[in-house]
Every structure is written in C-alpha cells, then in structure tokens.
Amino acid sequence: MAHYIKFNQVNKSFKSEQVLNDVSFELEKGKIYGFVGRNGSGKTVIFKLISGLMRPTSGEIFLENQNMTHAKQFPKSIGVLIETPGFIPHYSGMKNLKILNGLSSSPASIETLEKSMELVGLDPKNKKPVRTYSLGMRQKLGIAQAIMNSPELLILDEPMNGLDEESVKKMRVFFTNLKKEKNVTILLASHNKEDIQVLCDDLFEISKGTVKRSKQSQEEVVV
Ligand SMILES: Nc1ncnc2c1ncn2[C@@H]1O[C@H](COP(=O)(O)OP(=O)(O)OP(=O)(O)O)[C@@H](O)[C@H]1O
C-alpha cells in the first residue's frame, strides 16, 4: 500500500541531545496510529516534524508525496493539537475560533465552527472569555480548533488531558467515526493505555531515539 506519511532515516538533535536516531517508518491513510513513550522520548518532536513546525537535522519526511523536509508552508488539511493550545484569553471560544479560521488557507463557514464547538460539548453562544475556561473546556476548544477545517490528517498530542470520563467516551466515538466515515488519518500521543487500546490500529513505541512499530492487539474493542 502506498504510504501517506514517510520518515526516511530521520535524525533530530538539539545541541548534544539526539532525540531521534535514524528513524524510518511509513503510515497509511485512514488509520489511527498511537505514539507511546516516556516523558521526553520524542513524541511531540515527531508530530512537529510531520506538521512542518520543526525541521529534521538530517533525513527526509514525506506527507502525501510532498517532501516536508524543507517545507516553508504549514501543509493544508492538517488539524493539530500540540501542547497547551494558545488562545486569546479575553475573547470567547467562538471568537478565538473565528480568528484562527481567518488564518486558514481553507476557512470553514460559521456554521461549521459552531458545529465543531458543539461536537466537543461547548456552547458556541457562550460569551465567557477563554481566560475563565476550566482546563477541560480549554482542551475541548483545542480539539474544536483542530477539527474545524475538516482536516485529512489530525495530529493530537494528549487530546484527552483534563477531560471528564463522559467527554473522553464521546471523543473516542467521534475520532473513530472520523476515521471510518471520512477516512481521516489520526496520530495520537497518549499516556493513557485505554485510549491507545480503544482507538489505535497500530502503535509506535519511542525509546532512546528509536521508533519501534508494535502491532495493536486484535481484540474487538468497543468504543
Ligand atoms: N525546541 C526544543 N529545544 C531543545 N530541546 C527540545 C526542543 N523540543 C524538544 N526538545 C527535547 O526533545 C526531547 C523530546 O521532547 P518531546 O516534547 O518530543 O517529548 P514527549 O515524548 O512529547 O514528552 P511528553 O510525554 O512529556 O509530552 C526532550 O528531551 C525535550 O527537552
């Protein structure tokens, strides 16, 4: 099967620290991939390399045959939730989404923005400034921001951080449906074994600079 994302002998160092050491792997379209590893193992670095927010020290990275190694533009059709989302604190959630949407190369309609907020369990009409949001609400707004432009590739770094049990369940169903119904590829970093077990088709373990593929258990999983 043709690759959708490809790492070819990728190295990434920061001064004397080598975070990725000759890493090669290929990912297919329309699957959910889990990335696991200890704190500081390099999950976020991999996500930033794929989304063009960081460059490799050497090696090549391809996204749908586009060579991302020296890409100058953020690739189209990627939704990203990496680290704590930065929002303008004195604006409402909806106003923040409108501003970010205005920067997109394929802006969504107001209705789509509202729907994205509703999908994650936020009220688009709520005028509360984001600075008063709880951790979970902020995280939900981060997910809404990542999905609002209907991306083909969704990169989610610890997306369930701060979400209550019911919201986690809803998000799991939502991400699974995005894959099944819209063929969205999802890359997920999580320290939560259950999220990985329930959501991912395939798993990558990152340790000491290497990335090892390990097959997800084939048990039938109910979301
Ligand atoms: N911009 C940077 N400058 C210097 N070092 C960095 C930079 N970004 C990441 N690193 C280092 O790269 C290593 C991997 O970091 P990364 O954020 O990818 O870890 P992670 O696997 O996502 O960890 P966590 O589970 O804690 O989120 C860490 O040692 C980190 O300090």
Automatic annotation (TrEMBL):
Keyword Nucleotide-binding tagged: yes
Molecular function per GO: ATP binding; ATP hydrolysis activity
SMART domains cross-referenced by the UniProt entry: AAA
Keywords for this protein: ATP-binding, Nucleotide-binding, Transport
Domain ABC transporter: 5-223
PROSITE patterns: ABC_TRANSPORTER_1, ABC_TRANSPORTER_2
InterPro entries: AAA+_ATPase, ABC_transporter-like_ATP-bd, ABC_transporter-like_CS, ABC_Transporter_VariousFunc, P-loop_NTPase
PANTHER family: ABC TRANSPORTER ATP-BINDING PROTEIN ALBC-RELATED
Protein name as catalogued: ATP-binding cassette domain-containing protein
Source taxonomy: Bacteria, Bacillati, Bacillota, Clostridia, Lachnospirales
